[in-house]
Amino acid sequence: MENTENKIKITLDGKTIYARKGSTIVEAARENGIYIPTLCHFEGADPKACCRICTVKINNRFMTSCTTPVSEGMEIENNTEEINDLRKSIVELLFVSGNHFCPTCEKSGNCELQALAYRFKMLVPRFPFSFPRKEVDASNPKIVKEQNRCILCKRCIKTIRDEEGRHYFAYKNRGQHLEVVLDPVLGADMPDELAKKAMENCPTGSILYKGKGFEQPIGTRKYDNQPIGSEIENQS
Amino acid sequence: MATDEKIYQILSKFDQDKTRLMDILLSIHEDQGFVSADDMRKLSESLGISYAQVQETATFYHFFSNTPKGKYNIYLNNSITSVLKGRAAVKEAFEYYCGTAFGSVSEDGLFGLFDTSCIGMNDQEPAAIINDKIFTNLTPFRVKQLVDDMRKGLSAEELMYEDFGSGNNADPDIRAMVTNNIRKKSIILKKDYEPFSFLTSKLKTMSPEEVIAEIEASNLRGRGGAGFPTGLKWRFGRRTAGKHRVIICNADEGEPGTFKDRVLLTEYPELIFEGMVVAAYATGADIGLLYLRYEYKYLYHFLNRKLTEMRKKNFLGESIAGMDGFDFDIRIQLGAGAYVCGEESALIESLEGKRGEPRDKPPFPVEKGYLGYPTIVNNVETLATAVKILHHGAAWYSSFGTKDSLGTKLLSISGDCRFPGIYEVEWGTTLREIVAMSGAEDVQAIQVGGPSGMIIGMKDVNNMDNSELMKWYKPSGMMIAEKFFDRKLSYSDLPTGGSIMIFDNSRDLLSEVVMNFMNFFIEESCASCSTCRNIPLLMKNKLQKIIDGHGIRQDIYDLLNWGKILKASRCGLGQTAGNPILSSIFHFRHLYEQRIQSLTQFDSGFSLEKATEASRKYLNKKPVFHHF
Asked: Does A168 sit within 8 Å of B530, measured CB to CB?
């Protein structure tokens, strides 16, 4: 029997599961072998629900499961037709609002956006492509910021900081002009480690480390071998 | 570029505190009109944040600039009412006489012309902000006068007429041409109350618990639009432990068409501030902040004077009104132009010197708000109402309004009507009564601003007709057709923050009105959520396709289906950003049906001419198209 001490009972798609007190819905689900897709969420960093893909329905209201803590008796709708279609539409939105050409992308196979598109069986998006004109910023000595592939998820903003907590990356502008930029001052002498970490933490191929970026060839990478989420679903 | 000395003077004035970045940036703008890259670098060095972080805040707000602007900067309101009242001619006149286009600064550096979202002057449009002063009822002739005077070098102050607007608008600290247009007074607006008399007498006999209980008994709900029970909010705030507690008055009314708070701030500032003090007493708060939208900067000195007067009378400060241990003071924080900051958690982010991006909830501000302290954010009208309730008692207040919506509501009525202005009506008033009292005729639609919980399901709506849609869409708020004018303003039927805009039958609802609202939501999105960043633009483009005559029936279903996705956005702005289109489909379906190609099933939006335009130009070839 599972040790249910210090745990609270919640219902996920009608199934009763036990969750650690203080954990978020995403964490509780994953600890029970249920995968809730996430994109902007990054383990260890404060969640900021930007992508909305982890949306679930509680009491007929949409809540993001990466930010919502579990509470006793919570009833969560996750794997429903409605929610899955919403998630698929968000993946499509991210595709049509940028310029994502997987066959020529350095990140292919390790890209979470691409992996989610496969998981949700995206074929032709329901929305028209916008083909926006974006600049590629290669001015930094270590990093190329490929704005065509940026999904504005804030992962780099949240996780790439110096010892004093200053941000290397930040948002600029708002509305249709929103973009993520690399600080020209701090970025000028960015440690190698941090630059590589920035590339790894980016869910798409928007942050690229100059020089040799990837060890593994395309075709043998993480999501080339198994669908995203399966590592959670297959644990027993 | 500001001198080092100036920058450090400003920085030290705000204790090199990064949470005061808004004030620091505002001060630099006050000084030189913009913040240069070099200035931002200096700020980042002193504030312990990166250059990119300074830039993040500095590029978020509409009234901040990183390039020099004109000596005179003219921000012309582009709300729909401004458009209806002749904005196009005024805009043309500004461009003609200033010799530059909107969105640019003239070559001689004299004039900067800019569009701006609703500035809260819908009862006297077209209106513009020129160097922080408000100019209302503009005409092309008046524009010529203004530009002539500016060319002579007159200050914005000197551009105004000698006779100022009504009431306190003539106060030496305001001196604005704005008029109040109070058309109907009831229990809040009647000046039957001596300011601070509750604070100095009855409050001393009540415990904080009793104050909260009285507000709860009155059933007062947040007047900004969301309608959260005020007493409960105060109770939550009081219950949460914290080193400090914070009362914030939200004076960032940015909902298109609303201007009631402007009038309250001008004529009833004592009532608002007394409300804040009372709320502080009830919740145990010691920090008070009034977040004033930048558009109302012309009221800033006046409001600050009122605070100084209160301090002198010991209505602020330590041991307020002789009550031992009751310490509380209020600071006014100016915004810098961002509609989304009206959302309480975005407002708190802005107060902390960051971009105004709403927070994920939970935690709610009452648990973790400004600088992490329990924070109660109340609307201007809510605080003013609270004082009247406490003064007269909850039982008295309950005799007004309807069973489920007690008391009164201030409405900002504008658009196609003879008497635009502020109306204080009891809850339960019907739209038909509003039409009559505002002198509107031949009305086509009324836009009722406010939260709209319209969509209750995500069911696929393909091939549904309106009667079927009714089952899935709860009709509320937004664009309302004549046959629904017997609906009542109330929390159970038509909840509203009070913005009422009337459109008569001469208006093109889709291409004029709905388009204007969609542009507003696209411009004002903080764009953090993937949904709110993308869907409104896609919906607008789709609507444009229908207006252009290329639409088919599937486009209407697409709009309905896409609008539902917005419900997954973080804040109310994002969740309701599609409502202008959704509610107009619901209430004015025929306007869409008329424009679509009803016999065509395939998507006819593609234009071969347009798609090949660039290459034809390049090859210098004339188009040869075969139309079938």
From this structure: no
The b/e string for B448-481 (b: 16+ C-beta within 10 A; e otherwise) is: bbbbbebbeebbebeebeeeebeebbebbbbbbb
Residues of A whose CB is below 8 A from B528:
48, 50, 152, 154, 171, 178
Q: Which residue has the tokens 């089952």?
A: B471
Q: Is the pLDDT of residue B543 over 60?
A: yes
Q: Is B139 left (phi over 0), alpha (psi -120 to 50) or beta?
A: beta
Chain A residues within an 8 Å CB radius of B565: 86, 89-90, 93
pLDDT in tens, B395-448: 999 999 998 899 999 999 999 999 999 999 999 999 999 999 999 999 999 998
CB–CB of B338 and A175 under 8 A?
Answer: no
In A, minimum Cα distance to B460 occurs at A82
Contact B525 A128 (CB under 8 A): no
B458·A86 Cβ contact <8 A: yes
* Nearest C-alpha neighbor of B534 from the set A137, A132, A54, A38: A132
Q: Report the alpha-carbon distance of residue B628 to residue B459 in Å, rounded.
A: 38
* 474-533 in chain B: CB under 8 A from chain A: 522-531, 533
Q: How far apart are CA B238 and CA B246, in angstroms?
A: 10
Specify the pLDDT at position B611: 82
Q: What is the pTM of this model?
A: 0.93
**Share of residues in chain B with pLDDT > 90 (%):** 78
Closest CA to B596 of B510, B468, B497: B510
Q: How buried is B163 (Cβ within 10 angstroms: 0-12 exposed, 13-18 middle, 19+ buried)?
A: exposed
CB A179 within 8 A of CB A207: no
Distance in Å, alpha carbon of B540 to nearest chain A alpha carbon: 12
Interface size between A and B, measured as CB pairs under 8 A: 125
- Give the separation between CA B365 and CA B360, rounded to whole angstroms: 10
Interval A86-143: pLDDT, tens: 999 999 999 999 999 999 999 999 999 999 999 999 999 999 999 999 999 999 999 9
Q: Long-range contacts: B369-373, Cβ < 8 Å, 24+?
A: B369/B246, B369/B248, B369/B345, B370/B246, B370/B248, B370/B287, B370/B289, B371/B19, B371/B244, B371/B246, B372/B242, B373/B242, B373/B243, B373/B244, B373/B245, B373/B246, B373/B287
Q: Provide the shortest C-alpha distance from residue B519 to chain A (in Å).
A: 11
Q: Which of B525, B530, B569 sits opposite A94 (nearest CB)?
A: B530
Query: Do B360 and A168 make contact, defined as CB atoms within 8 angstroms?
Result: no
Residue for token pair 């109660």? B376
CA distances from B396 to B217, B218, B618 (A): 11, 9, 76
Residue B30 pLDDT: 92
ipTM: 0.95
Torsion of the alpha carbons at B453, B455, B458 and B461, rounded to the nearest 10: -170
Length of chain B: 628
Eight-class DSSP state of B320: G
Strand pairing class (A75-77; A55-58): antiparallel
| Whether A186 and B529 lie within 8 Å, measured CB to CB | no
CB atoms A49 and B570 under 8 Å = yes
For residue A170, list chain B residues with Cβ-Cβ distance below 8 A: 50, 52-53, 55-56
Map residue B74 onto helix, strand or coil. Answer: strand
Residue from A174, A178, A185, A204 to probe the interface with B (highest B Cβ count within 10 Å): A174
Q: How far is CA A102 from CA A98, A132, A150, B209, B567, in A?
A: 12, 17, 13, 62, 30
Interface test with B, best of A40, A61, A171 (most B CBs within 10 A): A171
Residue B610's pLDDT is 80
Q: How far is A82 from chain B (nearest CA, A)?
A: 6
Q: How far is A74 from chain B (nearest CA, A)?
A: 14
